[in-house]
Amino acid sequence: MDKEERKIINQGQEDEMEIYGYNLCRWKLAIISLGVVCTGGFLLLLLYWMPEWRVKVTCVRAAIKDCEVVLLRTTDEFRTWFCAKVRFLSLETPPFSSSKSLVNKVLNGHAVHLTENLAEENRLEMNKYSQPQSQQIRYFTHHSMKYFWNDTLHNFDFLKGLDEGVSCTSIYEKHSAGLTKGMHAYRKLLYGVNEIAVKVPSVFKLLVKEVLNPFYIFQLFSVILWSTDEYYYYAIAIVIMSVVSIISSLYAIRKQYIMLHDMVAAHSTVRVSVCRVNEEIEEIFSTDLVPGDVMVIPLNGTVMPCDAVLINGTCIVNESMLTGESVPVTKTNLPNPSVDMKGTRDELYSPETHRRHTLFCGTTVIQTRFYTGELVKAIVVRTGFSTSKGQLVRSILYPKPTDFKLYRDAYLFLLCLVGVAAIGFIYTIINNILNEVEVGDIIIESLDIITITVPPALPAAMTAGIVYAQRRLKKVGIFCISPQRINICGQLNLVCFDKTGTLTEDGLDLWGIQRVENARFLLPEEKVCSEMLVKSQFVACMATCHSLTKIEGVLSGDPLDLKMFEAIGWILEEATEEETALHNRIMPTVVRPPKQLLPESAPAGSQEMELFELPAVYEIGIVRQFPFSSALQRMCVVARVLGDRKMDAYMKGAPEVIAGLCKPETVPVDFEKVLEDYTKQGFRVIALAHRKLESKLTWHKVQNVGRDAIENNMDFMGLIIMQNKLKRETPAVLEDLHKANIRTVMVTGDNMLTAVSVARDCGMILPQDKVIIAEALPPKDGKVAKINWHYADTITQSNDSSAIDPEAIPIKLVHDNLEDLQVTRYHFAMNGKSFSVILEHFQDLVPKLMLHGTVFARMAPDQKTQLVEALQNVDYYVGMCGDGANDCGALKRAHGGISLSELEASVASPFTSKTPSISCVPNLIREGRAALMTSFCVFKFMALYSIIQYFSVTLLYSILSNLGDFQFLFIDLAIILVVVFTMSLNPAWKELVAQRPPSGLISGALLFSVLSQIIISIGFQSLGFFWVKQQTWYKESHPYSYAFNTTESLDGNSSHVDDETNPDKHNIENYENTTVFFISSFQYLIVAIAFSKGKPFRQPCYKNYFFVVSVIMLYAFILFIMLHPVDSIDQVLQIVCVPYQWRITMLIIVLVNAFVSIAVENFFLDMVLWKVVFSRDKQGEYRFTTTQPPQESMDWWEKCCLSWALNCRKKMPKAKYMYLAQELLVDPEWPPKPQTTTEAKALVKENGSCQIITIT
């Protein structure tokens, strides 16, 4: 393809795609139409399944600018193809006709960004009738997003709202006035209806789409073929199975669509009020909203129908739909840079950066706070599928393909079966031609061999195990919206845990406070609720610096704020609507202590004299609130004591951040040491600060001032120490995971030392393990980025020097034998800032840090997602367990994301646990392993079923015979379906073991298992087939010969009596057929038992009662009709009566077959191959293990053989992290030594290479 005609859309984003232009070609269409007719429509089906071929065979390449069809290909590892038709949006119909310059602006992409001067846009719109002319904009729709042609970019681009390229200044100056009606109508033409349209497809449409699945087309082909060969019963059985499968599939798909439709329908059409340019309030439907509309938020709240930025007032919002956090969030108006003292005029507005000022679609505004004469207003920034909720719904409607080795290998395996079928196809044609069989029979028999080799019941059989696992997970309180992920969870070898609410209790308990006076720490105090402290600035900060609100009379908000406020025992009162209307400067929220805490006497202390000169009522009003920001790691409020002239600013947040914003002389000298002592003990520490504001800052100025003008030059007041207790089950669960060789990683927004302490307490880091803190600094003042390495001390009560003992550095033990390999016990810890610097400047160090990184603190939501990706890049199968708040991205990105939130945010996570406990993690992994092993068992069994039946038919074809219709029916329905659906019922093993099941079908153990059973089955079938011909009583048969029966005499001899009235057209009733039928029927049951393994991933098969009963009943029935023939059954199954001695001979063949099959599968394979060749250890080291499968100790000679086999094995591990672990064992520079620095090389920026410099 010409490179000039290849463009990239959504560059750098998750849905980045290549785009190619094509035009329809009439002569190609004519040829394809002829081909469709000639192939009976099969070519049309192929083109339906293959979008790339469909476009290339019907179109010719064209410039993207002028093309009629676009071909899209994702740039990820899946390289998926899509095609879309280019359409035209006409601007010629009034009232959308406009001046040429305005239309050109749209065509040039300006309207795509909406960043132009609104006044000019309105002026041009007013002249819309002056030069009416035909103008059209070209666009296409892909995954519910419209992409318009942009002349500036010379590419298609999706229509953006006010969420990109718009400064905070222009939000107020250019967009806060609202739109004219004409401009609104014009934008609506471009943006379309504001709705997240999840259309529930009709049953007919779903049916057509489902029936056109390649699997069902193959079944249809099989049914037609069997019908022509008069296999009506089996054809009807397959049709019934297919109909049941299609109906259940349609029901499940339609149910999911309805659930999703109901979820998004809540805000689909509501009435909203918008402000127009002339300050007129207009009521419109929410579906008519466009970016730039100024929406009035009603007093009693609403469900947001779009994403909007708040420019007036305050809102209390429930964001559980998006974040999973049930705590109401306070949203304040976007700071206006034009009135900000520091004048941050150039800051661009971003919904993520300014999420504390953004109301997101689908979230519920519970209540609003406003001031006299001012409405609570928000500017619409995104609508429809561009909103945060729209993007979430798109990710559900159009999920990324699941990349799992099992499914890739399954397709390869099917291709192998097709190859085998092709051999049988050619053999059948040649054999029948040589035997001068009719052409019609040759075609039917040769095609029949294909339907035998590729079993139609395979997909249903593979799904059964997953469905059963999903049902078992539901019983233990784990709900799954992505069943295919259950198998992937069986491969998890690393799990990331959020800390607060996941590893530790959700709430924090106030342990105590430590105030500061005269830049010195006082002794810690447990009780805060006392008369002595009631009027202190410290308690005033605790009373005001929070985001609590009353909803229906109940105090609600952040759990930390709640605990803090409850500890001081104060009362919070919010102004009512009537009070707000009566006063000019009403305080929106007032806090006051209970009367019993207020001292009756005069003040005792000169420091607070000014406060005590107030009236008897002591109240503090919260004038302005700057909500907590995870990026800034702090929150701030402006408050005023009733009757005081000056306002106060109170701030709380991360101690290191707060201390940096305070006057240095107010911060105690031993601040860092005291903080470190608390964090090492696992306490959550919050610092408080205060500042008296200048009297020139009036109430009105405070409403518009930026937080940077307030948050500086503060007085440090002290620390609040919160205790975050571990959940009772956390240490035991983590110990189980470690025993199972599953790595655990902590990802938290908390302080690093606190996180390290919690990691030690819960057993994630063992007492003897070393912790290396990586402190990365970005480039500054011409200096390159660097990483400082520090070794964290273990928690000790002694006051020893913090100098690192050189002998305490982890020593790596390298041994000749891999089984003696010891894992180096060290862990890396870093914060979010360091992680970002390392990702950007030290790419070659990232894999090494991922191998031993255990604690990641102060991580932002997007950094959590980046961490999951970095771990996946070194071939870890990553699980993520979080409480739903701020973890949505990581939960979706991980191979197995488990949300501990029952709220609607669970829609973003594949798994949701009903009980908020990490005990769900081992349960999920156990069920995943069981489901994965079940999938392997079923696949192996179905492969053997195909090959056994294929070989039976091939042997019989050699004598121009075949299996009878009811013989096929008995094998396929009575044996195969019963066995498949019962062998999948084995529950998961009760505990996690150190080994993981193989990740794919193309692995040594599984291939050996399948191939050995194929050879055994073919061998014993061949033995019976050729041995029967050597018997003295054997009589050869041919098609159209008369069917013969054998009547046994008492002495066991037989005499042949031909039934002259029954010509056997298909030559079914003969000795070879009967022998092959009995032996093969037993073989299906033998391999089912051989493959139904239990421990260590599943419960033993004898505990699967349905399977045991089914197999026993089938064995009994087949033995009965073999040893004691019943005429009616023999007639139906077309079995001939053979001498009793031959029946005993067949029984012996079957018993020997069973012994050999089970011995090879359960003894040789498990004892030798699995334990030695296919055994894996947790860090990529291969060692001898005795836990899988459960066998007794072996003799000395066996151990010698195994040791020799192990030493011969020099194959490098496939997983990157395993290979890296082996490399690092011999790397003298790793891990980094204490007090050393790693610098990035300034010249070689591309590969992020670095050098280690020792600081002396």
Automatic annotation (TrEMBL):
Subcellular location: Early endosome membrane; Late endosome membrane; Recycling endosome membrane
Chief location: membrane
Residue stretches making up the P-type ATPase A domain: 272-396
E.C. numbers: 7.6.2.16
Membrane topology: Multi-pass membrane protein
Keywords assigned by UniProt, alphabetized: ATP-binding, Endosome, Magnesium, Membrane, Metal-binding, Nucleotide-binding, Phosphoprotein, Translocase, Transmembrane, Transmembrane helix
UniProt GO BP: intracellular calcium ion homeostasis; polyamine transmembrane transport
CDD domains: P-type_ATPase_cation (cd07542)
Catalyses which reaction(s): putrescine(out) + ATP + H2O = putrescine(in) + ADP + phosphate + H(+)
Superkingdom of the organism of origin: Eukaryota
Alphabetical list of InterPro entries matching this protein: ATPase_P-typ_cation-transptr_N, ATPase_P-typ_cyto_dom_N, ATPase_P-typ_P_site, ATPase_P-typ_TM_dom_sf, ATPase_P-typ_transduc_dom_A_sf, ATPase_P-type_domA, HAD-like_sf, HAD_sf
Domain Cation-transporting P-type ATPase N-terminal: 176-226
Presence of the UniProt keyword Transmembrane in the record: yes
Residues annotated as domain P5B-type ATPase N-terminal: 13-150
Family: Belongs to the cation transport ATPase (P-type) (TC 3.A.3) family. Type V subfamily.
Biological role stated in the UniProt entry: ATP-driven pump involved in endocytosis-dependent polyamine transport. Uses ATP as an energy source to transfer polyamine precursor putrescine from the endosomal compartment to the cytosol.
Name of the protein this chain belongs to: Polyamine-transporting ATPase 13A3
This protein's encoding gene: ATP13A3
